[in-house]
């Protein structure tokens, strides 16, 4: 099953079933790309827990060692953006990068989840762009200016239940139609169950919380007006643009 | 004015006026320490933005340089705890520390706030314990296991409007009645308006969001069963205990 959260023409927030570009709710159907609806992020996370260096090829391109346990960082709710949105990056920065990621949407409140039970707390998967302000990220201990700025986590449009997404699902980005990243869920250093077990050793996850599982190699800069696509095989494609003041 | 959020004997969440140990709501009055009410954190932050090394004497005791701009890190809502609560620290750690802080509670949604207008977005001040799991903090790039674990941000019980809190308000901690920290708001390297201006250059703050402004020297370890008090002059005293599994 696939779902899309959206604001309908009357302004009401709905969660519809999604199939082949069309969102169905009650007796109504809408084209995902129609101006009649405002597509929203697929959940309302209280926090987004992000994983750094979870693909060996990306750690290598960043000149970083492989971590011996998941490297965690946080994006708060102000970082959310949705399908079709224009994200305004922090002003006056040299380098703002895209990072295509498979997002895990949590379905129930949980803590101390064993790996073997971890998929039970997953509502589904979505597409995330972990937008990164490298100017500040490279100067900060904690990546707040670098990773937690407004709009730094475009997400969606589809939440796909786990059965829709193959174990080797492709994770791709395109900028202005050109393929930039082409990784696979199989390449994750720490698997989704390992991430859930580790995070919930310390933090309670709430329904709607998102784990952004890390990005494969091929990250790069965004220029003013660029159109970004984040594709996760079995989920769909998130599209948004960027403004660089 | 001083306020306390609490759950009344019927389970309803109320915000009462606070005076001399008593909370007033409508026709009812309750002793703050009474078992009839459950004292809650003074707001429901979507994020807590914390400031590291904002007192020179604390940076010195940690062997850290002074930052040339505010050092930011994040605690998500799972970190919240309230007055009278028992916080369970992450299991099996050597060193869990208290850190007394003046908390700033935001009153309105805001971004790009100039320093000169910053106090207009402040609802009031509260007491925060920035509990720190040093074992993990010292090994992490981003302090998630170290600072964002469940219960890592006890807060409250009182929200005091800014006029109640002197410019040189004392910020103190006591453990089992013994004074451990005794700093002053005057010692902040970056003032509250400077912090609000810097944070809102990047992040939108929401009503109820909290800025934890940093801790003075004298931080130290907590043992199982310790009783902690965090006092901010003009606000009051937050009390909670800790469990060290």
From TrEMBL, chains A, B:
InterPro entries, from UniProt? Fumarylacetoacetase-like_C (IPR011234), Fumarylacetoacetase_C_sf (IPR036663)
Lineage top rank: taxon: Archaea
A single GO BP term for this record reads: carboxylic acid metabolic process
Key word Oxidoreductase present in the record?
no
MF annotations from Gene Ontology: hydrolase activity; isomerase activity; metal ion binding
Q: Keyword Coiled coil on this protein?
A: no
Which SUPFAM superfamilies does the record cross-reference, listed alphabetically?
FAH
Q: Which Gene3D superfamilies match?
A: Fumarylacetoacetase-like, C-terminal domain
- Keywords tagged on the record: Hydrolase, Metal-binding
Residue stretches making up the Fumarylacetoacetase-like C-terminal domain: 47-242
The protein in question is named Fumarylacetoacetate hydrolase family protein
């Amino acid at each position: 099953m696939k779902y899309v959260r959206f604001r309908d023409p009357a302004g009401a927030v709905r969660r519809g079933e999604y199939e082949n570009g069309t969102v169905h709710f009650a007796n109504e159907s809408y084209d995902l790309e129609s101006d009649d609806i405002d597509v929203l992020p697929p959940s309302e996370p209280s926090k987004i827990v992000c994983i750094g260096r979870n693909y060996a090829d990306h750690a290598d391109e960043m000149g970083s060692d492989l971590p011996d346990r998941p490297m965690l960082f946080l994006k708060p709710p102000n970082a959310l953006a949705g399908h079709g949105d224009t994200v305004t990056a922090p002003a006056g920065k040299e380098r703002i990068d895209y990072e295509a990621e498979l997002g895990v949407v949590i379905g129930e409140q949980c803590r101390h989840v064993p790996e073997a039970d971890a998929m039970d707390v997953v509502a589904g998967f979505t597409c995330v762009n972990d937008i990164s302000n490298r100017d500040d990220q490279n100067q900060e201990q904690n990546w707040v200016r670098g990773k937690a700025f407004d709009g730094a986590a475009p997400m969606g449009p589809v939440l796909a239940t786990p059965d829709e997404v193959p174990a080797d699902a492709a994770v791709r980005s395109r900028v202005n139609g050109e393929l930039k990243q082409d990784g696979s869920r199989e390449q994750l250093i720490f698997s989704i169950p390992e991430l859930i077990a580790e995070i919930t050793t310390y933090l309670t996850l709430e329904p709607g919380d998102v784990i952004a599982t890390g990005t494969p190699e091929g990250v790069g800069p965004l220029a003013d007006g660029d159109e970004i696509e984040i594709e996760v095989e079995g989920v769909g494609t998130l599209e948004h643009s960027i403004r660089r003041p």
